[in-house]
Amino acid sequence: MTRAARRSAGYAFGFLDLRAKKELRRAMLKALCIPGYQVPYASREMPIARGFGTGGLQLTLALIGPQDRLKVIDQGADESVNAVNLRQFIALTCPGVQTTTVSAEATLLQTRHRIPETPLRADQIVVLQVPYPDPLIVVEPSEQRRKTMHGEADYSRLWVKLYEDMVHFDEITISHRYPTRIAGHYVIDPSPIPRWDLPKLHQADCIYLFGAGREKKIYAVPPHTEAQPLSFDDVAFRVESFTDKISGARLACSRCGATDSFLDELIEDDGAKRHQCSDADYCVQRLDAAALNAAALDAKRMP
Predict the structure, then answer these.
(1) 256 in catalytic set
(2) Can you give the residue ranges of every domain in the chain?
């Protein structure tokens, strides 16, 4: 359907009707005022299946304006099926909105499973897609009881779950969706981001919004807010190390040589392993910077 045909068919800017956008914005404001609190909202039916980012998509469509520049990523990549389809849908229903693959250029970022490596600014908003918003669901099936536990900041059963990990494995084995306490009270599920990304939530300059369409919940981490992963006094929280098991040296990206980013392990056809930056834009920016530096050095050497 062309843009002209869509407008004649009665589609509003951003697909959602004005009433839906107002409700979503009110819910987001409440979530920002009460950091970590899960705000219920009437999740709308979207032209994608629940579980494919409907919650994050609704937040993005309620926030986006013609002046925005949008970036959509899935596990750090701009070219994945989920990221490409969501980006195309938002661009189709939001005439005039520019899209980008560069994190520093975006004013609005929608992401699944990763937070960009590039430090984010105060004028940027990050929307995370969330499958299961409540970290207590692993220890308490009743939603009513979970609400009471959140209100009383009663996370003792979650602490027991972490302690059992220590007893069985000598360390906390949670690799993603690591429970994180916000502003000293509510504990959130930070979506399936790796532990590597959790420190980015703490005292961040930007706004982090979390949308769960299937569970009909919105929560947020406002700027300059404490975000502390749950950890014991004698067992400090740690992120992934990415070190060589034999030499102990820090692994590097096979493309750009980065040693300060989250790495994906890739298996070649011959069985050999290599590592590459999960954040595709961060890798490209480093390669471009290296090429510019090489060109500048060549120019200096020329007579």
Answers:
(1) yes
(2) 3-229, 241-303
